[in-house]
Amino acid sequence: MGLNIIVLVKQVPDTQNITGEAMSEDGTVNRAALPAIFNPEDLHALEAALTIQDANPGTRVNVLTMGPPPPYRF
To answer: Going along the chain, which residue ranges are E strands?
Structure first.
């Protein structure tokens, strides 16, 4: 029987190239003006979980996320 690993991940605004449109008048981030990316710290957690999975046959990695819905529908 293998491990069952849960990795918590979230999309965050890409702050690498912030423009004036990125901030709202009230000082909050305008998510529509910035592309969403996978949180870099969460990628480290996912990579660690996958490394554990490779070393332990039968291990299952589950990803759980939350956040605002994407601007598109399926």
So the answer is: 4-9, 11-13, 36-38, 60-65
